[in-house]
Specification:
This protein is an all-beta fold. The chain is built from no helices and 31 strands. It has strands at 13-15, 21-23, 59-60, 67-71, 78-84, 90-95, 100-105, 111-114, 121-127, 133-138, 144-149, 155-158, 166-171, 177-183, 186-192, 198-200, 208-214, 220-225, 231-236, 242-245, 264-268, 274-279, 287-293, 297-301, 310-315, 321-326, 332-337, 343-346, 353-358, 364-368, 371-376. It starts with 12 loop residues before the first strand and ends with a strand.
Length: 378
């Protein structure tokens, strides 16, 4: 079984100047639950938003005796948690059979559901420690906009410099938001300050720049395509300067072989440590997780039992990393890697597990067979 058979893209298309459409998957995918798989009404669909061991390290299935909770908002037929904050509050989306809606799950398990006014689809993507949420929605004309939801439930639309087709993907504790937008010249990265000021910020010379994570200091990571169409990772400082990087041994040629990935950073912690995934020149079944320490020191992440397909999808302040891997039978598992390099595999009840977010305490949320889950370490 191919690892990609159990994944679906949060969005697979990137629109270039002249309205030519280039399929970005499998550059990056962010598999979510049924609620994420709403039909895209336009081809400028959402692009991926919201995703290290030596061979001597062991893998323990019960090392931490964690607590698992599965959950669904009332009326849900498919639940897709996307983000958990330091207080254990979770946001995400769910389908009630007629539309995709947003939800907030408090730490005591109570739910608040919401729709952006006038939206036909609401997709929360990130929640900060204050409980402020950002994400995207589709209006009645199937145009995508960003939104900001305050803790009291007040919602405002975020208009980027392109006025429409705006996709916020992450918010930090200072209220800074990063994401991307489209205008007549193509796709661009943006940073929105707490006061509402937008700054366009693209990697110099890149065809497009896709931010995926922002830390408390305002440092952003993600990936971009160079003029030749090859993908690379980037780090953007709070001052707006860029550093680009590739994991040693990562594919840096084009066309990208099927089932492989360029260097794809997906998470950054307060110390500036970055995690993500990449493929080497081995072709299919040669995808690995990585963590990049400051100073370009890279460590490859492959849990024992991985059959050559690992994605590291998040890192917290304690340098705990979570992600997914496939074993020899093609079964997908979730894993946690401690800062000491010890691996724990975990699978909530169900046959498909996809973690999406980890908070500073090590609590992890995600989806399992169409339901939300919360994994809390002892």
């Amino acid at each position: 079984m191919s690892p990609n058979t159990k994944e679906w893209s949060f969005s697979s298309y990137l629109v270039f100047p002249g309205n030519s459409t280039k399929e970005l998957d499998p550059m990056i995918t962010h598999p979510l639950t049924f609620a994420q798989r709403a039909p895209r009404a336009r081809q400028k669909g959402m692009l991926a938003v919201y995703l290290l061991a030596l061979c001597t390290l062991g893998l323990s299935a019960n090392a931490q005796n964690p607590t698992f909770i599965t959950f669904d908002p009332p009326g849900s037929i498919g639940t897709g948690p996307t983000s958990i904050n330091s207080a254990g509050v979770i946001t995400g989306n769910y389908s009630d059979g007629s539309r995709t809606r947003g939800f907030v799950r408090s730490s005591d398990g109570t739910f608040t559901t919401f729709d952006v006014p006038g939206a036909i689809l609401t997709n929360p993507l990130s929640i900060n420690p204050a409980g402020v949420i950002t994400g995207t929605y589709l209006d009645a004309s199937s145009v995508s906009h960003g939104f900001l939801r305050a803790r009291d439930g007040t919602i405002k639309t975020l208009y980027g410099p392109g006025l429409a087709d705006t996709y916020p993907v992450a918010i930090n504790q200072a209220g800074m938001i990063t994401g991307y937008y489209y205008d007549a010249s193509g796709q661009h990265c943006f940073v929105r300050a707490r006061d509402g000021t937008f700054t366009t910020s693209d990697v110099p010379g890149g065809l497009y720049t896709i931010p995926l994570s922002i830390n408390p200091s305002g440092v952003i990571t993600g990936f971009y395509s160079d003029a030749s169409g090859v993908g690379h990772g980037f780090l953007r400082s709070r001052l707006g300067t860029f550093k680009t990087f590739d994991v040693p041994g990562a594919i840096t040629t084009t066309p990208l072989p099927a089932g492989t990935y360029y260097t794809t950073p997906v998470g950054i912690n307060p110390a500036g440590e970055i995690t993500g995934y990449y493929s080497d020149s081995g072709g299919n079944n040669s995808t690995h997780g990585f963590v990049r320490a400051r100073g370009d020191a890279f460590t490859v992440i492959d849990p024992p039992g991985s059959a050559g397909f690992t994605k590291a999808l998040g890192i917290n302040p304690a340098r705990t990393i979570m992600g997914i891997y496939f074993d020899d039978s093609g079964t997908q598992h979730a894993f946690v890697r401690s800062r000491t390099g010890a691996f724990t595999t975990f699978d909530p009840p169900g046959s498909y597990t996809f973690p999406t977010s980890i908070n500073p305490a090590g609590a992890i949320t995600g989806s399992s067979d169409g339901h939300g889950f919360l994994r809390t370490p002892d």
